[in-house]
Design brief:
The protein contains eleven helices and eleven strands. With 324 residues, it is of the alpha/beta class. Mean pLDDT is 92; it is low at 3-19.
Length: 324
Protein backbone atom coordinates (compact mmCIF):
# COMPACT_ATOMS: atom_id res chain seq x y z
CA UNK A 1 0.00 0.00 0.00
CA UNK A 2 1.46 3.37 -1.01
CA UNK A 3 1.42 6.49 1.14
CA UNK A 4 -1.62 7.98 -0.63
CA UNK A 5 -3.66 4.80 -0.18
CA UNK A 6 -2.66 4.65 3.50
CA UNK A 7 -3.82 8.22 4.12
CA UNK A 8 -7.17 7.60 2.39
CA UNK A 9 -7.76 4.40 4.35
CA UNK A 10 -6.84 6.07 7.66
CA UNK A 11 -9.15 9.02 7.01
CA UNK A 12 -12.05 6.75 6.05
CA UNK A 13 -11.61 4.72 9.21
CA UNK A 14 -11.45 7.84 11.40
CA UNK A 15 -14.82 9.06 10.17
CA UNK A 16 -16.56 5.68 10.02
CA UNK A 17 -19.28 5.50 12.77
CA UNK A 18 -18.09 2.11 13.99
CA UNK A 19 -14.67 3.54 14.80
CA UNK A 20 -15.94 6.15 17.20
CA UNK A 21 -15.01 5.54 20.82
CA UNK A 22 -17.85 4.17 22.91
CA UNK A 23 -19.57 6.46 25.39
CA UNK A 24 -19.24 5.11 28.93
CA UNK A 25 -21.71 5.94 31.66
CA UNK A 26 -21.03 5.24 35.32
CA UNK A 27 -24.12 4.14 37.28
CA UNK A 28 -23.84 4.05 41.09
CA UNK A 29 -26.13 2.15 43.42
CA UNK A 30 -26.03 1.44 47.12
CA UNK A 31 -27.47 -2.05 46.72
CA UNK A 32 -25.75 -5.39 46.30
CA UNK A 33 -25.08 -6.73 42.82
CA UNK A 34 -26.57 -10.13 43.76
CA UNK A 35 -29.92 -8.68 44.94
CA UNK A 36 -32.82 -8.75 42.48
CA UNK A 37 -32.55 -4.96 42.29
CA UNK A 38 -28.86 -5.27 41.43
CA UNK A 39 -29.62 -7.91 38.81
CA UNK A 40 -32.26 -5.65 37.26
CA UNK A 41 -29.72 -2.85 36.96
CA UNK A 42 -27.16 -5.22 35.44
CA UNK A 43 -29.72 -6.45 32.92
CA UNK A 44 -30.53 -2.87 31.96
CA UNK A 45 -26.84 -2.12 31.40
CA UNK A 46 -26.42 -5.23 29.23
CA UNK A 47 -29.52 -4.36 27.18
CA UNK A 48 -28.26 -0.83 26.51
CA UNK A 49 -24.88 -2.08 25.40
CA UNK A 50 -26.41 -4.73 23.14
CA UNK A 51 -29.04 -2.46 21.58
CA UNK A 52 -26.51 0.29 20.82
CA UNK A 53 -23.92 -2.17 19.47
CA UNK A 54 -21.67 -1.14 22.38
CA UNK A 55 -21.72 2.52 21.34
CA UNK A 56 -23.03 3.22 24.84
CA UNK A 57 -21.75 1.19 27.76
CA UNK A 58 -23.00 1.48 31.33
CA UNK A 59 -20.55 0.52 34.05
CA UNK A 60 -22.44 -0.38 37.22
CA UNK A 61 -20.87 0.38 40.61
CA UNK A 62 -22.86 -1.61 43.18
CA UNK A 63 -22.91 -1.73 46.98
CA UNK A 64 -21.71 1.85 47.59
CA UNK A 65 -18.44 0.99 45.82
CA UNK A 66 -18.20 4.34 44.01
CA UNK A 67 -20.57 6.79 45.71
CA UNK A 68 -22.39 6.32 49.07
CA UNK A 69 -26.13 5.79 48.67
CA UNK A 70 -27.02 9.09 50.36
CA UNK A 71 -24.83 11.01 47.90
CA UNK A 72 -25.81 9.31 44.63
CA UNK A 73 -28.59 11.72 43.62
CA UNK A 74 -26.29 14.73 44.11
CA UNK A 75 -23.48 13.00 42.20
CA UNK A 76 -25.74 12.35 39.21
CA UNK A 77 -27.18 15.83 39.35
CA UNK A 78 -23.69 17.37 39.28
CA UNK A 79 -22.56 15.11 36.45
CA UNK A 80 -19.93 13.27 38.50
CA UNK A 81 -21.92 10.14 37.71
CA UNK A 82 -24.05 9.75 34.60
CA UNK A 83 -26.70 7.60 36.28
CA UNK A 84 -27.72 6.22 39.64
CA UNK A 85 -30.20 4.18 41.66
CA UNK A 86 -31.61 5.17 45.05
CA UNK A 87 -34.62 4.33 47.19
CA UNK A 88 -37.25 6.87 46.24
CA UNK A 89 -38.32 7.68 49.78
CA UNK A 90 -34.77 8.88 50.42
CA UNK A 91 -35.59 11.85 48.19
CA UNK A 92 -38.80 12.79 50.03
CA UNK A 93 -37.22 15.57 52.06
CA UNK A 94 -36.40 17.51 48.88
CA UNK A 95 -39.23 16.08 46.74
CA UNK A 96 -42.15 15.30 49.10
CA UNK A 97 -44.14 13.53 46.40
CA UNK A 98 -41.38 10.88 46.31
CA UNK A 99 -42.69 9.66 49.67
CA UNK A 100 -46.06 8.52 48.33
CA UNK A 101 -45.18 4.83 48.19
CA UNK A 102 -44.09 4.86 51.83
CA UNK A 103 -47.44 6.07 53.19
CA UNK A 104 -48.46 3.01 55.23
CA UNK A 105 -51.47 0.83 54.51
CA UNK A 106 -52.52 2.58 51.28
CA UNK A 107 -51.51 -0.08 48.77
CA UNK A 108 -52.17 -3.73 49.58
CA UNK A 109 -50.94 -5.53 46.46
CA UNK A 110 -48.51 -5.26 43.57
CA UNK A 111 -51.45 -4.16 41.41
CA UNK A 112 -52.10 -1.29 43.82
CA UNK A 113 -48.40 -0.42 43.84
CA UNK A 114 -48.35 -0.33 40.03
CA UNK A 115 -51.36 2.02 39.93
CA UNK A 116 -49.73 4.26 42.51
CA UNK A 117 -46.58 4.48 40.38
CA UNK A 118 -48.67 5.36 37.31
CA UNK A 119 -50.15 8.30 39.24
CA UNK A 120 -46.86 9.29 40.87
CA UNK A 121 -44.52 9.06 37.88
CA UNK A 122 -45.57 12.23 35.95
CA UNK A 123 -44.96 14.33 39.06
CA UNK A 124 -41.65 12.64 39.82
CA UNK A 125 -40.54 13.24 36.24
CA UNK A 126 -41.46 16.92 36.51
CA UNK A 127 -39.40 17.36 39.69
CA UNK A 128 -36.48 15.43 38.25
CA UNK A 129 -36.44 17.55 35.08
CA UNK A 130 -36.27 20.68 37.24
CA UNK A 131 -33.16 19.21 38.88
CA UNK A 132 -31.42 18.20 35.68
CA UNK A 133 -32.33 14.52 35.99
CA UNK A 134 -34.01 12.01 33.68
CA UNK A 135 -36.23 9.26 35.15
CA UNK A 136 -35.52 5.84 33.67
CA UNK A 137 -37.46 3.28 35.70
CA UNK A 138 -38.62 2.28 39.18
CA UNK A 139 -38.88 -1.15 40.81
CA UNK A 140 -40.53 -1.95 44.17
CA UNK A 141 -39.12 -3.99 46.98
CA UNK A 142 -41.40 -6.77 48.27
CA UNK A 143 -44.05 -5.53 50.72
CA UNK A 144 -43.40 -4.83 54.36
CA UNK A 145 -45.09 -7.41 56.60
CA UNK A 146 -45.54 -8.21 60.26
CA UNK A 147 -43.27 -10.59 62.20
CA UNK A 148 -44.22 -11.74 65.68
CA UNK A 149 -42.97 -14.21 68.27
CA UNK A 150 -46.58 -14.87 69.33
CA UNK A 151 -49.83 -15.36 67.40
CA UNK A 152 -51.65 -12.16 66.41
CA UNK A 153 -55.41 -12.25 65.87
CA UNK A 154 -56.34 -8.63 66.54
CA UNK A 155 -54.74 -5.25 67.13
CA UNK A 156 -54.89 -5.68 70.91
CA UNK A 157 -52.47 -8.60 70.62
CA UNK A 158 -49.80 -6.07 69.61
CA UNK A 159 -50.46 -3.79 72.57
CA UNK A 160 -47.46 -3.79 74.90
CA UNK A 161 -45.24 -5.65 72.45
CA UNK A 162 -41.71 -4.40 71.80
CA UNK A 163 -41.75 -3.43 68.13
CA UNK A 164 -38.56 -2.86 66.17
CA UNK A 165 -38.63 0.59 64.52
CA UNK A 166 -36.20 2.34 62.16
CA UNK A 167 -37.82 5.63 61.10
CA UNK A 168 -40.50 8.11 62.12
CA UNK A 169 -43.27 6.19 60.33
CA UNK A 170 -42.58 2.87 62.03
CA UNK A 171 -42.36 4.65 65.40
CA UNK A 172 -45.84 6.12 64.85
CA UNK A 173 -47.25 2.76 63.75
CA UNK A 174 -45.95 1.19 66.95
CA UNK A 175 -47.37 3.97 69.07
CA UNK A 176 -50.78 3.88 67.37
CA UNK A 177 -50.94 0.12 67.89
CA UNK A 178 -50.03 0.50 71.56
CA UNK A 179 -46.63 -1.16 71.10
CA UNK A 180 -43.34 0.06 72.53
CA UNK A 181 -41.06 1.44 69.76
CA UNK A 182 -37.50 0.08 69.91
CA UNK A 183 -35.04 1.68 67.50
CA UNK A 184 -32.94 -1.10 65.96
CA UNK A 185 -31.08 -0.99 62.62
CA UNK A 186 -31.45 -4.18 60.60
CA UNK A 187 -27.78 -5.05 61.15
CA UNK A 188 -28.48 -5.21 64.91
CA UNK A 189 -31.74 -7.22 64.79
CA UNK A 190 -30.08 -10.54 65.72
CA UNK A 191 -28.46 -8.93 68.76
CA UNK A 192 -31.72 -7.24 69.80
CA UNK A 193 -33.54 -10.57 69.55
CA UNK A 194 -30.94 -12.37 71.65
CA UNK A 195 -31.21 -9.63 74.29
CA UNK A 196 -35.01 -9.81 74.31
CA UNK A 197 -35.37 -6.18 73.26
CA UNK A 198 -37.90 -6.80 70.45
CA UNK A 199 -40.67 -9.33 69.82
CA UNK A 200 -42.44 -7.83 66.77
CA UNK A 201 -41.31 -5.95 63.67
CA UNK A 202 -42.45 -4.83 60.22
CA UNK A 203 -40.14 -5.60 57.32
CA UNK A 204 -40.08 -7.61 54.09
CA UNK A 205 -39.80 -11.37 53.71
CA UNK A 206 -36.54 -10.82 51.80
CA UNK A 207 -35.00 -8.99 54.76
CA UNK A 208 -36.23 -11.70 57.11
CA UNK A 209 -34.50 -14.40 55.07
CA UNK A 210 -31.28 -12.40 54.76
CA UNK A 211 -31.17 -12.13 58.56
CA UNK A 212 -32.46 -15.67 59.32
CA UNK A 213 -34.99 -14.30 61.80
CA UNK A 214 -36.82 -17.64 62.13
CA UNK A 215 -34.65 -18.47 65.13
CA UNK A 216 -36.84 -16.07 67.11
CA UNK A 217 -39.90 -15.07 65.08
CA UNK A 218 -42.44 -17.83 64.45
CA UNK A 219 -45.32 -15.91 62.82
CA UNK A 220 -45.43 -13.85 59.62
CA UNK A 221 -48.56 -11.92 58.62
CA UNK A 222 -49.10 -10.51 55.13
CA UNK A 223 -50.26 -7.03 56.06
CA UNK A 224 -48.51 -5.50 52.97
CA UNK A 225 -47.91 -2.25 54.81
CA UNK A 226 -46.14 -0.51 51.91
CA UNK A 227 -44.08 -1.23 48.79
CA UNK A 228 -41.00 1.06 48.77
CA UNK A 229 -39.50 1.60 45.32
CA UNK A 230 -35.98 2.09 44.00
CA UNK A 231 -35.69 4.60 41.17
CA UNK A 232 -33.02 4.62 38.46
CA UNK A 233 -32.26 7.89 36.67
CA UNK A 234 -29.70 9.66 34.53
CA UNK A 235 -28.09 13.06 34.32
CA UNK A 236 -30.35 14.91 31.86
CA UNK A 237 -27.47 16.59 30.04
CA UNK A 238 -25.67 13.28 29.60
CA UNK A 239 -28.86 11.76 28.22
CA UNK A 240 -29.47 14.70 25.86
CA UNK A 241 -25.89 14.43 24.56
CA UNK A 242 -26.56 10.93 23.21
CA UNK A 243 -27.57 10.50 19.57
CA UNK A 244 -31.35 10.21 19.20
CA UNK A 245 -31.21 6.52 18.34
CA UNK A 246 -29.22 5.81 21.50
CA UNK A 247 -31.69 7.81 23.59
CA UNK A 248 -34.48 5.64 22.21
CA UNK A 249 -32.54 2.47 23.04
CA UNK A 250 -31.93 3.65 26.61
CA UNK A 251 -35.64 4.34 27.12
CA UNK A 252 -36.67 1.03 25.56
CA UNK A 253 -34.18 -0.84 27.73
CA UNK A 254 -35.48 1.05 30.78
CA UNK A 255 -39.07 0.02 30.04
CA UNK A 256 -38.00 -3.62 29.70
CA UNK A 257 -35.97 -3.39 32.93
CA UNK A 258 -38.93 -1.94 34.81
CA UNK A 259 -41.23 -4.78 33.73
CA UNK A 260 -38.56 -7.37 34.53
CA UNK A 261 -37.86 -5.75 37.90
CA UNK A 262 -41.51 -5.85 38.98
CA UNK A 263 -41.67 -9.54 38.05
CA UNK A 264 -38.44 -10.20 39.93
CA UNK A 265 -39.80 -8.41 43.00
CA UNK A 266 -42.91 -10.61 42.98
CA UNK A 267 -40.75 -13.71 42.62
CA UNK A 268 -38.44 -12.58 45.44
CA UNK A 269 -41.44 -12.08 47.72
CA UNK A 270 -42.79 -15.57 47.02
CA UNK A 271 -39.39 -17.27 47.25
CA UNK A 272 -38.61 -15.52 50.53
CA UNK A 273 -41.93 -16.45 52.13
CA UNK A 274 -41.36 -20.06 51.05
CA UNK A 275 -37.92 -19.95 52.66
CA UNK A 276 -39.42 -18.60 55.90
CA UNK A 277 -41.98 -21.40 55.77
CA UNK A 278 -39.29 -24.04 55.19
CA UNK A 279 -37.57 -22.80 58.32
CA UNK A 280 -40.60 -23.28 60.51
CA UNK A 281 -42.38 -19.94 60.34
CA UNK A 282 -46.16 -19.79 59.91
CA UNK A 283 -47.15 -17.60 56.95
CA UNK A 284 -50.68 -16.25 57.23
CA UNK A 285 -52.78 -13.48 55.65
CA UNK A 286 -53.55 -10.39 57.70
CA UNK A 287 -55.89 -11.45 60.54
CA UNK A 288 -59.50 -10.50 59.80
CA UNK A 289 -59.84 -8.59 63.07
CA UNK A 290 -56.65 -6.63 62.35
CA UNK A 291 -57.66 -5.54 58.83
CA UNK A 292 -60.15 -2.80 59.87
CA UNK A 293 -57.52 -1.28 62.16
CA UNK A 294 -54.97 -1.33 59.33
CA UNK A 295 -57.50 0.33 57.01
CA UNK A 296 -58.18 3.11 59.52
CA UNK A 297 -54.44 3.64 59.99
CA UNK A 298 -54.08 3.93 56.22
CA UNK A 299 -56.77 6.61 56.14
CA UNK A 300 -55.09 8.48 58.98
CA UNK A 301 -51.62 8.40 57.42
CA UNK A 302 -53.06 9.37 54.02
CA UNK A 303 -54.83 12.43 55.38
CA UNK A 304 -51.73 13.52 57.28
CA UNK A 305 -49.60 13.10 54.16
CA UNK A 306 -52.10 15.08 52.09
CA UNK A 307 -51.95 17.91 54.63
CA UNK A 308 -48.15 17.88 54.70
CA UNK A 309 -47.57 17.70 50.95
CA UNK A 310 -50.47 19.77 49.70
CA UNK A 311 -51.96 19.96 46.21
CA UNK A 312 -49.54 17.55 44.56
CA UNK A 313 -50.59 14.78 46.94
CA UNK A 314 -54.09 14.99 45.47
CA UNK A 315 -52.59 14.60 42.00
CA UNK A 316 -51.30 11.21 43.16
CA UNK A 317 -54.08 9.88 45.36
CA UNK A 318 -57.16 11.05 43.43
CA UNK A 319 -56.25 9.20 40.22
CA UNK A 320 -54.92 6.27 42.28
CA UNK A 321 -58.21 5.77 44.10
CA UNK A 322 -60.16 6.38 40.89
CA UNK A 323 -58.29 3.54 39.18
CA UNK A 324 -58.65 1.36 42.26
Amino acid sequence: MNRRQLLVTTAATAFHPASRAATVWHLSTGYRADSFQGQTIAGFARAVEASTSAALRIQVHADNSSVPLAEIAAAVRSGKQQAGEVIMTGLAKEIPIAGADAVPFVVSSYEDAQRLWQSQRPLIERHFVARGLKVLFAVPWPPQNLYSMRPVRQADDLRGSKMRTYNATTVRIAQLLGAEPVDVPMSKVAQALSEGRIDTMITSAVTGVENKVWSAFKFFYEINAWFPKNITFANAAAFAALPVDQQEMVLRSAAVAEAAGWSASRAAAVDSMNELRRNGMRIEPAPSLLRPVIRRLGEKFSLEWLQDVGREANEVFIPFYARR
